[in-house]
Amino acid sequence: MRHRLTACVMASGLLGSTGSRLPNELALLVFDQLLDDRETLCTLARTCRGMQHLAEERIYRTIELLSVKDLQAIIQAFTFRHERVRAVQTLKILYQYRPGDLNGSEEGRSEFNECVAHMVNLREWHIESPYDNFHWEMEGGHGWVDRDMVRFRSALEAACVDGPKEAERIAAERRIGKAIERTVGLALLEHLTIHSHGAHEDFWDLDGFDCLFRHPTLRYIHVSCISFPATELSSLASHIKTTPLTTLVFDECELEPKSLLSILRTPARLKHLTLGENVFNVKESRRVDPKLSKNAGASLEALAAVAHSLESLTHLDPGWRTDLSAHVLRSIRPAGEGLRNFHSLKYLECDTNSFLHQATIMNRDLAPPNLETLRLRRHWEVAVDFWDQTPAVDHYTALPSLTTLELSQSSFTWFELSSPSYICQADRLRNRHASAYKLYKADINLKLMIEMHRDPNLIPPYLHGELVPVVQCMYDASSVGFHRHISYAVPAVSRRRPELPRYAPDPDFDPPVPSSLTTSSEDNDSDAEEPTGPAPETDQLGERDIQRITAQTRFALRQLKIKFIRQRRERRASSESELSFAEELEAEEDWESVDDLDEDEDMDLDLELDEAEFDSDLNEHQALAALYGQQGGLIVGDYLDSEYYSDSDGLEPDEALWGGGYGQTSGHGQNSGHGQTSGHGQTSVEDVD
Question: Which 3 state secondary structure label does DSSP give 147?
């Protein structure tokens, strides 16, 4: 409060003349309106000391480091004025892996890390090791673990120990009308994300980082690739129900029931929990080991610590990797009360082989009593996919509070499970709708989602700039409905080219399915009269329904896949238009030498790495051709500005979309042409001339 009053006094004396003064509130609003205009803020900072103080509060509020090249400029700025360190509220350490830059950067990183330990107003902190993605064995990877991570840990430990003591002193001083400045760094931290690795493998041991779960102000924690001990954490025993943590995300971690119990005892009211076990990082240093489901009783006991407050729960279980019949629904009954005391739990997400599904969903009396949404997951490598076969719904109709059942099928852009001809094959669609009808009679709505990945090689944890999977609904029973007149006449395939919207750069562009994609009565060659009267309730679908749903699905998948292309272009455009942080600081002060980021060079390299990940043997244009098919009609150049469909006569709609070129699909998981696939989920790419 004292700091805010000082700012108001300074503002009122700056923005005005001898005869007129701008009100304090309006003066501060002027600076707040310039929050995203750092160039103007830097200009204001050079006018006078008062302006400099107010402008720098906003200039240094958010720091995002993509390269170690910025470090010397920022360290120099911090050294020149310590108030700049106090101004930082959001810090993102996102150093990119470029050996030429990282070599010899240990000293600069150490200096900057000392500054981080004094950021007393830091609220949000995001840390990513530049040596992640299996670069931990490279030169410098050990240094990150032994120096950078050790310094981060000591700063967090100091905040845990000294932060509460300082908070008590500040409260006592306020009661007698005094104010003192904060001196403990990270004592106000609320949001923390850490993606790192160990010294010799992709996983790092918790060790002293148990301080994360003792921090007095942290409300959100997201950590990845941590290996937790198999024993309880004694250091947390004195902090039961003392922390304000509300969201906890474990991402690709090796979890153990006993240490998990110690952690879940510390929050006073945890609301959102993700138990992400090691599902994908199983090739380099670890094997598949679903520890929580192996000991369902102990795992449920650990979860019981947050039964009074938990609202959403997600479990990502690697068990499907070793289960040859992962699609088979099984039931187990461990000792205890399961999730029956989780009265606040409204959302549950897991695989069908998860202990949450087998022990609680499959036992009605152990299920959460007020569960509203259940999302079941299935990976593309599981032999039976959700498009082909929905699980037996009787177990879900037995849950009295359930209103929505979501089946989430994962796939990637050029795989058959992303093909509308496969998703909407007539028998699959009719069986799906019949299952939805059974759920509908129990007041449960069925949704089938697709979790679209860009390619099978991009795995979590997803780092800065990586294209994360997109989840989108492909079938919503409430939208399709169960009242209709059934017509089994086969409509003629219209040869009119649909008038679809062209590619638009608007990131929020999400047009509805055009009417030209639906089958009208004019397309029906049958002379049968249209039925009249109210449509009866039925679980059947007619030919027109099949064609309409297929057309809508095709269009939705096109838009979904285009999003991946759009994200790459938006990232390129934003990188080319923004100054580096060092360049912004240089505009404020005339330093003799500042090592600026070469944005163009760095972005070009980033895109090269991105394209190599997408397909090691295809350039960008060829990869997009593989994605859509040469006769799919999307001509990809600098812009997606051509017609959606080709003029290829004699091709059925699905053939025009998926066949006749790269990525042509025939059969379940069998591709012909480049990008040939053999087996469900196994892809090999041939060279392209």
Answer: helix
Asked whether residue 121 is domain-assigned, the answer is no
**Contact indicator for 540, 599 with CB cutoff of 8 Å:** no
Cα(260)–Cα(275) distance, rounded to whole angstroms?
A: 10
Angle at which helix 543-577 crosses helix 426-441, to 10 degrees, equals 90
Residues 147-152 have a mean pLDDT of 97
Output the CA–CA distances (angstroms, integers) from residue 259 to 262, 300, 350, 438, 604, in the order listed.
Answer: 5, 13, 21, 42, 44
Per-residue confidence (pLDDT) for residue 22, from 0 to 100: 64
CA quadruple 54, 59, 63, 67: dihedral positive or negative?
Answer: negative
The half-sphere exposure of 147 on its side-chain side, counting CA atoms within 13 A, is 15
Number of domains in the chain: 2
Does 441 lie in the same domain as 345? no
pLDDT of res. 282 = 87
Instruction: Looking at the structure, tell me whether residues 434 and 486 fall in a common domain.
Output: yes
Same domain, 284 and 414: no
pLDDT tens readout for residues 515-530: 433 333 334 444 456 6
CA 193 to chain centre: 12
What's the domain range around 284? 219-368
CA angle centred on 674, ends 669 and 677, rounded to 5° = 20
Q: Which H helix or E strand runs over 313?
A: strand 312-316
Model pLDDT, residue 18: 46
pLDDT at 27: 65
Check whether residue 359 and residue 479 sit in a common domain.
Answer: no
Q: Collapsing DSSP states into helix, strand and coil, what is residue 274?
A: strand
Top pLDDT among 521 and 152 is at 152
In angstroms, the CA 164 to CA 151 distance is 20
pTM of the model: 0.78
Tokens 């006449």, located at residue? 489
Q: Which residues pair with 249 in a beta bridge?
A: 222, 274
Contact 513, 556 (CB under 8 A): yes
Same domain, 377 and 441: yes
Residue at a domain's end among 311, 338, 368? 368
Report whether pLDDT(401) > 60: yes
List 65's β-bridge partners, or say none: 93
Do 263 and 406 lie in one domain? The reply is no
Q: Is residue 357 part of a domain?
A: yes
- Cα distance between the two ends of the chain: 67
Structure tokens at 634: 């999307």
pLDDT confidence tier of residue 21, bands split at 50, 70 and 90: low
DSSP codes joined into one string, 7-26: HHHHHHHHSB-SS-B--HHH
Contact present, 85 and 610 (Cβ < 8 Å): no
Collapse the DSSP code of 243 into the 3-class scheme (helix H, G, I; strand E, B; otherwise coil) and give the result.
strand
Per-residue CA distances from 262 to 155, 255, 461, 518 (Å): 22, 12, 24, 56
Q: Are residues 379 and 331 in the same domain?
A: no
Among 368, 391, 423, the domain-final residue is 368
Nearest to 524 by CA among 503, 548, 508: 548
**What are the C-alpha distances in Å from 645 to residues 498, 624, 642?**
8, 15, 9
SS3 323: coil
| Pair 503, 449 in one domain | yes
Q: With cut-offs at 50, 70 and 90, classify the pLDDT of residue 24.
A: low
Q: Looking at residues 410-431, what average pLDDT do you find? A: 95
Q: What is the DSSP letter of 386?
A: T
pLDDT at 135: 80
H helix intervals, 88-229: 99-102, 106-116, 141-143, 149-175
